[in-house]
Amino acid sequence: MHDPFDITDCAAGAEALAVLEGVGRSYRSGAVAVDALKPLDLCVHRGDFLAVMGPSGSGKSTLLHVLGCLDRPTAGRYLLNGHDVSRMPDRELAEVRNATIGFVFQRFHLLADESALRNVELPLLYGGVPRAERRVRASEALASVGLEDRVAHRPGELSGGEQQRVALARALVKRPRLLLADEPTGNLDTAAGGRVLERIAEESRRGMTVILITHDPEVAARAGRTLMMRDGTLGHP
Ligand SMILES: Nc1ncnc2c1ncn2[C@@H]1O[C@H](COP(=O)(O)OP(=O)(O)O)[C@@H](O)[C@H]1O
Ligand SMILES: [Mg+2]
């Protein structure tokens, strides 16, 4: 596999999906400044499956939020699928995010008062997909995670593993180029986590680019490469 920290020629290459050039993220809360992400270079190729490990507070979520365009870098340049997203206006950024990225969070982030089907339909609704097509595609996405019998259930009526599979179906329903998962199995038991992980690995085998944060070395072992975050710096394990 290529060296993900070598961005020489990376931005010009057609195989590069996400390129961070000196990207950093600092937070300022009152008088306290935190360099959550120290300036780093990273080249993610199409089809890569990367695991990111590291202690709590080391900056893993910050990295994933920047990669997912949920947060902006305070330094450097981020090229996603050929677009410079680091300085893109909010509206445009939201469009690029919706068209390119699927995100799975540790705590699911499902709408509590909506059915599994409605939750999975949401990204299609934002994307302007007509109702009938939304239904079909959301149903297919739920079936692909083994939840065809739970479409009408609300999150509170589902187990943690089932809720995470709904969240994964929601992330996959638009066939994103880049799937980002922030400790997706962190709140699940081994069996439930295994089902989520297997589905993610299946997408990776089919060519989807995946970046996954985990504390579990067995989970990380499923990825093609593991990177280690320490104190805002990304390196080899
Ligand atoms: N919104 C924020 N405002 C201020 N500091 C933050 C914010 N988000 C994260 N941090 C700080 O940045 C550092 C990295 O956080 P985070 O990326 O969540 O780490 P990890 O996911 O590895 O546990 C932590 O020290 C945290 O306190
Ligand atoms: Mg985190």
Topology:
Layout lengths: L15 E14 L2 E14 L3 E5 L6 H8 L7 E6 L2 E2 L5 H11 E4 L11 H11 L4 H14 L15 H13 L5 E5 L7 H16 L3 E5 L3 H4 L4 E6 L2 E3 L2
Parallel strand pairs: 3-8, 3-9, 6-7, 7-8
Antiparallel strand pairs: 1-2, 1-4, 4-5, 9-10
Helix pairs in contact: 3-4, 3-5, 4-5, 5-6
Bound molecules: adenosine-5'-diphosphate (ADP) and magnesium ion.
Magnesium ion binds next to α1.
Description:
This protein is α/β, with parallel strands linked by helices. It has 7 helices and 10 strands. Strands 6-7-8-3-9-10 form a 6-stranded mixed sheet, with helices on both faces. A 4-stranded antiparallel sheet has the order 2-1-4-5, covered by helices on one side. A hairpin with a 2-residue loop joins β9 (225-230) and β10. The longest helix has 16 residues, at 190-205. Bound molecules: adenosine-5'-diphosphate and magnesium ion.
